[in-house]
Amino acid sequence: MLLRTSRRRTAIAATAAVAALTGVLAAPATAAPSGGPAAVSDMAAQAGVRQAVVNAAKAYLGTPYKLEYGWTCGTARVDCECLNRHAIWDGTKAATGRGLQLDYWLQGQIKGRRTTNPRPGDLIFWDTDPNDGIRYGGDLDHTGVYIGNGQAIDANASYGRVKYDAVTLGGTERDPIYVDVLTPNGY
To answer: The whole model's pTM is what?
Structure first.
């Protein structure tokens, strides 16, 4: 357990060091005229934050799954909402010095900007229970962090751990929802 926590901290520290060396620890991105030097700088800063979130999610790979409720989730065992909260907080904190705190439950985490053009660091949501009768209408069942190339990292109860997954969850979920929580919050 100590080794996993140490590796996670080392990965987060390494992300922060790389970001510092590349100048990504700038203030949150703001709107800039398209194509100008500020726009290029803002895009680099956003990419750095997004990569830091992906790296933070990767640091939890292999962590055991445990269903948690509310604000009690720790780092030794996580569920899907808890993984999102830690990845977003750890990544934004490492890249900018200020962490973004997400809501503790799935329905609250979907607040943000839905996107049809997902980028690494966006959240992904699935409605995995076809019998609940509310297709994306407020009863989402599972979530994770989109890492690009059709892949996500999620805390999966079926496998009992945090793992890489396809955005279709093996073909069972063909239309996930992607939510950008970073841009609307100034990252």
So the answer is: 0.75
